[in-house]
Amino acid sequence: MDRRRFLKQTGIITAGTLLVPSFLRANGLLNGFERNGKRLVIIQLSGGNDGLNTVVPYGIDAYHQNRNSLAYQLSEILKVNEKFGLHPALKGFYDLQQKGHLSIINSVGYPNPNRSHFRSMDIWHTGSDANEYWSSGWLGRYLDKNCNHAYEAIEFSGELSLAMKGEHQAGIAISNPNAFYKTMNSEFFQQMTKPKSKNEELNYVYRIFNDTRNSAEYIYDQYRLKENRSDYANHNFGQQLKKIATLIKSDIRTPVFYASLGGFDTHVNQKNSQNRLLGQLDSGFSDFINDLSKEGLMKDTTVLIFSEFGRRLKENASRGTDHGAANALFIIDSDLSSNAHSLNNIDLDNLEKGDPKFQVDFRSIYQELLSHRLKVDAKAVLGKTFDGIGLFA
User: Fold this and answer.
1) What is the four-CA torsion angle of 347, 349, 350, 355, rounded to 10 degrees?
2) How far apart are the C-alpha atoms of 105 and 95, rounded to whole Å?
3) Enclosing domain of residue 361
4) Domain count, the chain
5) I need a surface site. Which of 162, 222, 304, 383 has the fewest CB within 10 A?
6) How far is CA 25 from CA 30, 87, 191, 210, 212, in A?
7) Residue 107 maps to which CATH number?
8) Would you say residue 93 lies in a domain?
9) pTM (2 decimals)?
10) Contact (CB, 8 A) for 168 and 21
């Protein structure tokens, strides 16, 4: 039995506490870390956010012709240029765009798009082609090739995303650093000592527990270093970002953070639900930006915001939208190039099964983030080279 299956079947490591196969080297918890580039914060909008009502193509007739009840008018949106504007709930994002710190990239996707939530998210998480099934995520492979410890990629979630799982390394999923530390230092774990056993798998499990306890203590100690008194929106997404900001302000040795906001599967009465969700995204993220900016930490931070697919151009009979393909995504960075500010065009007349076609491969964006922000060999992580899009100065 391989070690991953052994850990799964024993049920010792549970979702919400830790989901790692192995993550620490024998030469000490903090050895070997060096962040050469910026830290990367990834925000996943789960459920397939409607990009056409997030980055609104108000200047294109086909948008209005296909969305009788859902289309936004110029008077309602935050105008970016003569063709596009942002959803009215995204005031903080609009402010970033006006300052030159927000890149809006339209028509992002991949060839032969899949409209299943689970399959499309797997493709985005792994960086595979649509006809490939990979077991490791793009950030997990980054960890495999460049990192030593699980705390170098932290996700605030009850379950670790496939994106964060490598073949040999993986990130760590926690809901709360304090609870994580208390769990790993509970009476049950404290009574466990290194067994004198010839059973390799048993020794492996005990080693994982000892390493996990060390990692839990490190994250807990960093989290307590600096009290974060900044006000954040009182919803789960905002509190996720506050915990990430608290760790960043502690100067934790973590180059990758991951958070998510769900509920974007808007088949029915979309306007109200998307408005509420984008309001949470904007309020939580604006608090996060303001918090880090006060201490000059945004200059070392890049943010990617994505969803697994967009929605159909034509609204459905329930005043919602159905699963689509290409989508808009956001990059936030203080050192964007002039290329990053030119909105990619979107073709609403030449559709693929009712969906706007992709013009930018999402892996081109991963390539830019790996090469220019995490400062690693992107081809070694992604397996091949993609077209460059020149996001960063």
Assistant:
1) 80
2) 17
3) 3-175+234-382
4) 1
5) 383
6) 9, 47, 23, 12, 12
7) 3.40.720
8) yes
9) 0.89
10) yes
Specify the amino acid at residue 173. A
What SS3 string covers the chain? Answer: CCHHHHHHHHCCCCCCCCCCCCCCCCCCCCCCCCCCCCEEEEEEECCCCCHHHCEECCCCHHHHHHCCCCCCCCCCCEECCCCCEECCCCHHHHHHHHHCCEEEEEEEECCCCCCCHHHHHHHHHHCCCCCCCCCCCHHHHHHHHHCCCHHHEEEECCCCCHHHECCCCECEEECCHHHHHHHHCCHHHHCCCCCCCCCHHHHHHHHHHHHHHHHHHHHHHHHHHCCCCCCCCCCHHHHHHHHHHHHHHCCCCCCEEEEEECCCCCCCCHHHHHHHHHHHHHHHHHHHHHHHHHCCCHHHEEEEEEECCCECCCCCCCCCCCECCCEEEEEECCCECCHHHCCCCCCCCCEECCEECCCEEHHHHHHHHHHHHCCCCHHHHHCCCCCCCCCEC
Residue 220 covered by a domain: no
pLDDT digits (tens, 9 = 90+) for 333-392: 999 998 888 777 899 999 999 999 999 999 999 999 999 999 999 999 999 999 999 999
Which residue type sits at 277? L
- What tokens does 174 get? 């926690």
Tokens of 183: 């769990």
Cβ neighbors of 362 (< 8 A, separation 6 or more) are 108, 109, 110, 124, 306, 329
Taking only the tens place, the pLDDT of each residue in 174-209 is 999 988 888 877 777 666 655 667 777 777 666 656
The verdict on residue 113 lying in a domain is yes
